[in-house]
């Protein structure tokens, strides 16, 4: 849990980095180090870690977005652009998708990957912070954030920013690791996360610590009900979620009133 007090000096505040508490100013740099380290093998690791199921989770996210030709969409913490790619097909040549990420290494890899696939003409790329999005109010029909919210320092501020830039009636979709709904599944998932993932990370990326952070950051992330409540606190309506793969992942949805 973060310890953020607006009245306190920023230098004295702490927040979570996995299971550690670190000075607030350090978290962004520490997260950047993680993604700089894994960017080159990020997509391969996603396929290996999830047995390819992450692609189904992302397809479902875009299917329920109700994007239409001509819409404008924003993919926050876009990583290497899986959601951007899928949304660009939905909005067509008269629409627009902005692919944004705070990490330049991830964004560059995503940009190159999409260009190699011929995805161009209706996609823009932008380095931006989820807590201070550089867009006017009421700009987008859909905003997505896939597996990125848990890395944000001030999640409430990021949700408020995403709500702000949505058009009235626009939709926010948050795809994120969550809390398994069955005890046995949770126990198996814990063993996999803290034993297999770091070893896999060491073999594939020569970096076990980044994947240990991944496992810890998932455990520190708000569970399904708490995240739903946070979305409502950000001013969004019809906040609900759907558990995927037994709650290992949850897709949260909301509408800007």
User: How many alpha or pi helices?
Assistant: 9
CATH class: Alpha Beta
Cα distance spanning the termini = 29 Å
Kindly report the spatial arrangement of strands forming the biggest sheet. 5-4-3-6-7-9-8
Q: Which percent band covers the strand fraction?
A: 15-25%
Question: How much helicity do the residues have?
Answer: 40-55%
Q: What is the CATH T-level topology?
A: Rossmann fold
Biggest pleated-sheet summary: 7 strands, mixed
Order of helices and strands: EEHHHEHEHEEHEHHHEE
Structural class: alpha/beta
Overview of this protein structure:
This protein is of the alpha/beta class and 257 residues long. It has one domain: Vaccinia Virus protein VP39 (Rossmann fold), CATH 3.40.50. It has nine helices and nine strands. The protein has helices at residues 24-38, 42-50, 54-63, 82-91, 104-116, 155-165, 183-205, 208-220, 224-233; strands at residues 14-17, 20-23, 72-76, 96-101, 123-127, 140-146, 166-177, 237-244, 249-255. The protein has a seven-stranded mixed beta sheet with strand order 5-4-3-6-7-9-8, sandwiched between helices. A two-stranded antiparallel ribbon has the order 1-2. Strand 8 and strand 9 form a beta hairpin. It is globular, with a radius of gyration of 17 Å. The protein starts with 13 loop residues before the first strand and ends with a strand. Mean pLDDT is 91; it is low at 1-10.
């Amino acid at each position: 849990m973060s310890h953020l007090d607006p009245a306190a000096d920023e230098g004295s505040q702490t927040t979570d980095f996995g299971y550690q508490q670190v000075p607030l100013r350090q978290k962004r740099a520490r997260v950047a180090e993680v993604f700089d380290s894994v960017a080159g093998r990020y997509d391969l690791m996603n396929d290996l870690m999830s047995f390819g199921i992450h692609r189904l989770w992302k397809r479902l996210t875009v299917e329920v977005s109700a994007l239409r030709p001509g819409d404008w969409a924003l993919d926050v913490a876009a990583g290497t652009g899986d959601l951007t790619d899928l949304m660009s097909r939905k909005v067509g040549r008269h629409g627009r998708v902005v692919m944004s990420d705070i990490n330049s290494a991830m964004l560059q890899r995503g940009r190159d990957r999409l260009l190699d696939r011929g995805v161009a003409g209706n996609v823009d790329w932008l380095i931006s912070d989820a807590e201070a999005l550089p867009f006017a109010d009421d700009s987008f029909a859909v905003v997505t954030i896939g597996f990125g919210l848990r890395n944000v320092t001030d999640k409430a501020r990021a949700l408020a920013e995403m709500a702000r830039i949505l058009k009235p009636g626009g939709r926010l979709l948050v795809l994120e690791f969550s809390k398994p709904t069955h005890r046995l599944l949770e126990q198996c998932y814990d063993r996999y996360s803290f034993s297999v993932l770091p070893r896999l990370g060491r073999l594939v990326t020569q970096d076990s610590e980044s994947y240990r952070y991944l496992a810890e950051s998932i455990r520190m992330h708000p569970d399904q009900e708490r995240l739903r409540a946070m979305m409502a606190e950000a001013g969004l309506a019809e906040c609900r979620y759907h558990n995927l793969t037994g709650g290992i992942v949850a897709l949260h949805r909301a509408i800007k009133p």
